[in-house]
Amino acid sequence: MSQQPQRNPRILFLRSCTQPTFAAFVAGGLHRSTTFDFMQYPPAPREKWEKLEKLYDPAAAWEDVNRNLISGRRELRKMFEEGCFDLVLLMDYDARLFRFQNMGVLQKARNWLGQWNNFLQYSNAEFSQETEYMQGVPLALAEIRSRVPVAAVDFNDWTCLTPGDQKILQDSSFYFKRELPFNRYFLYYQKRPAPWSEWRKKLSQGLDKVHNIPLGIEDEKYFQLKKQRAETQDIDIFFCGEATSTPRLKAVQILQEMAASTSLNIVIDEKLPFEEYCEKTARSRITLSVSGGGWDCFRHYEAVALGSVPFIDRPTVDAAWWQHLPADIFFENTFENFRDLLEKLLNNEQRRETYLDQIEKQVEAHMLHSKIVEYIVHTSLGKSTGV
């Protein structure tokens, strides 16, 4: 008896447009991976995806979020009934896609009235699309999970979950989060239910489904930046960024003192056009990448792509994907070893190049968006994978 050929896992990507940039990251990763097939829902009005203009390649991102779209609720329900999917990836900040299912009868009536009041603002096609999107999906999240595993993906850089996100964590099979606190209970800390001691006992039963993911970088962006590496690196230390945190203020102060007391070529800029920022990063042996709004940021990955060693403050969140990298690239948050580590890196070019090679291999193996999506899918389906 002949053996049936093994097929790729079939993935449904359910995503609201509340986080369009991050949704484009996942859609791009799904498209660029060859290990599974995917579909997406719901279609969204174009104006809800305007933030894609901020991405490295907005046109490609727009194509990514429109690939393999399921046209409507009826088709989606039918596909669920026919068992068409092996896994659902869910990206839905504050459970916006499921708010219609959570409404009472009166709330639903008001929602419909509000939609009809907007009729004159849209063409027939636009109104139909807007109504389809606002109603979200035809099944509650708990019902979806009863049919197929659900892996929630959270790229937000705040560590506390909103009430809607807490509900998603409760009803999903897995929860993958960027900027994940070391203490998982802090996911609930912003609005701690009382009594907290009793709630912790209940919460602990669901925290084992939470996994860390890095911010990562778009595949095409990374490999395009690699082509922009400079033959000669005449800048010793480079930092470009606004003073959005006290660690940045402290780091800039120390760099200014070093520039005044040494012969090092230290370049500090507050804001640059992206092309000039890339050109200076490529010319730099070390790029300072210190926490701003969150710990993990694009600068970590852009520096590596452009051939510069990122110099980073020790993680204040669970950064499992960085923990195997050379300790010398991480300075203490007290800044006690900030200057010593910089001098150590600059005084030994061979060591610096070795470190860059190690970081580069880690990024390319695990932190490209296609690799992050593969990790999420394989972990959710029970296939072996690793950090």
Using brief descriptors, characterize the structure shown.
387 residues; alpha/beta; Rossmann fold; 2 domains; 5-stranded parallel sheet; 15 helices; 11 strands; 13% strand; globular
Estimated helix fraction: 40-55%
Structural class: alpha/beta
- Strand proportion, as a percent range, falls in 5-15%
Count of DSSP strands: 11
CATH topology of the largest domain: Rossmann fold
Describe this entry's structure for a reader.
This protein is of the alpha/beta class. The chain has 2 domains: 218 residues, Rossmann fold (3-Layer(aba) Sandwich); 149 residues, 3-Layer(aba) Sandwich (Rossmann fold), CATH 3.40.50. 41% of the residues lie in helices and 13% in strands. The chain is built from 15 helices and 11 strands. The protein has a 6-stranded parallel sheet with strand order 2-1-3-4-5-6, with helices on both faces. Helix 7 links the parallel strand 4 and strand 5. Helix 1 crosses helix 2, helix 1 crosses helix 15 and helix 14 crosses helix 15. The two termini are 39 Å apart.
